[in-house]
Structures are given as C-alpha cells and as structure tokens.
Design a protein that fits this description.
Distance between the termini of chain A: 40 Å
Largest interface: A-B, 22 and 26 residues
Largest sheet of chain B: 6 strands, mixed
Order of helices and strands of chain B: EEEEEEEEE
Shape of chain B: globular
Oligomer: heterodimer
Largest sheet of chain A: 7 strands, mixed
Number of helices of chain A: 0
Strand content of chain B: 35-45%
Order of helices and strands of chain A: EEEEEEEEEEE
Helix content of chain A: under 10%
C-alpha cells in the first residue's frame, strides 16, 4: 500500500524558513517523480513544485520560484520542500503526491499545515 | 488567473445526473494535454476519480465518467448520491506556465 506522510509544518513568522518532509513507502520511490501541492484555507488546490525521479529536473510555480527548493533523498525514500522568505500568503495545507507518467496524482499524503503569521 | 476554469458550484438531487465543466486554453487542454479529476471532502486529501480524460481508477464507481474535446472537458456523475457532495477539481499541464495547473474547483451540493 502506498503511503505518504508529511511532517515539518507549523507556525513561522514572515521572512522565516521551514523545511517540509514527506516519507514514502509502498512503492519504488526512486522510480517516480514527486510533487508538492498546497491549499490555502478555504481556497482551491495550487501546484507548488515537482521533481523528477533522479532529481535531474525541478519545476516551480511562479509564486514560489526563488524562495522554495524541492529535493529528494532516494536512499531515504524522502521528499523535501525547503521554504525560505515565507509570506502570509504561503499559509496553507501542503500535500506531497506521487506523480504518474501522465502527470496525474493518484496518491496523496494527509497534508501538513504551514501558518505564516507574526 | 487559473488556466482552467470551473463554475464555483453545481447542485443536484439524489439519483440525478450532474456535469461539471472545465474550460481550458490553447496552452493546456487545447494543446492536447490530458485532464484529470479529483474529489475532495472537507478536511481530507484529494482523491483521484478520473485520469487521462476518461479512465476511472480502481475502486471509483462507474457513476463517474469524464470527457474531453478541444479546450473543454467535463466530469459527469450519474445516480447522484449524498456521499458525492464534495469539491471537484480538474487538472492538466500548461505550457505557458511550464507546470501543472488546477481548475478553481467546483462545490457539488446534493440537495
């Protein structure tokens, strides 16, 4: 059974940093692209960033480019999102998800809340 | 401004058929990229209900179906049931954004 478990969320001040982790199990992690999607309170889904299986290619939404960095450790079956220079508008539940070859997300984590507030 | 447009809400009564439209542009659906659909109940993670335009994942009832033509796509739910009340999102790839794009979401209310 595929499992994705996010951790590392919490309350941070504007301008601060936070690192999210996503622990994967139940599939060959090193063979799949992975992604982060977020959802602000009461709002819709927003794609944040994706990373190919070997980390060769990284993609970011314009809203986070230059501030967020996606990475992975295939030996640890883990995906990360380093979030720097956080803003109030980054407040959201962050989900990690496994990416199919056709770029859909069949498996999602339970989500982790990030709150950016003074 | 999302590259995929959905109505904020639709509603139907139990047993009825409803459709949720998703309008794209020439840089996503019109460029030939597939559309995928997710269902999300409050407080839970999204669940994939249709992928690659019209394919149901294992375990999704055959009451759910999808279609795509040109720059438009739609999700249809027949025999509406109370548990279908949820938010629904379409998703594709957008060349102008160089990334994944979601529709704004549609809240389905079962009256």
């Amino acid at each position: 059974e595929v499992q994705l478990v996010e951790s590392g969320g919490g309350l941070v001040k504007p301008g601060g940093s936070l690192r999210l982790s996503c622990a994967a199990s139940g599939f060959t992690f090193s063979s799949y692209s992975m992604t982060w999607v977020r959802q602000a309170p009461g709002k819709g889904l927003e794609w944040v960033s994706s990373l190919t299986a070997s980390s060769s290619y990284k993609y970011y939404a314009d809203s986070v480019k230059g501030r967020f960095t996606i990475s992975r450790d295939n030996a640890k079956n883990s995906l990360y999102l380093q979030m720097d220079n956080l803003r109030a508008e980054d407040t959201a539940v962050y989900y990690c998800a496994k990416v199919s070859a056709q770029k859909y997300f069949q498996h999602w984590g339970q989500g982790i809340l990030v709150t950016v507030s003074a | 401004q999302s590259g995929l447009t959905q109505p904020p809400s639709v509603s139907g009564t139990p047993g009825q058929r409803v459709t949720i439209p998703c309008t794209g542009t020439t840089s996503n659906l019109g460029a030939g990229f597939d559309v995928h659909w997710y269902q999300q109940h409050p407080g839970t993670a999204p669940k994939l209900v249709i992928f690659s335009n019209n394919i149901r994942p294992s375990g999704v009832p055959d009451r759910f179906s999808g279609s795509r033509s040109g720059t438009s796509a739609s999700l249809a739910i027949t025999g509406l049931q109370p548990e279908d009340e949820a938010d629904y999102y379409c998703q594709s790839y957008d060349t102008s954004l160089s990334g994944v794009v979601f529709g704004g979401g549609t809240k389905l209310t079962v009256l």
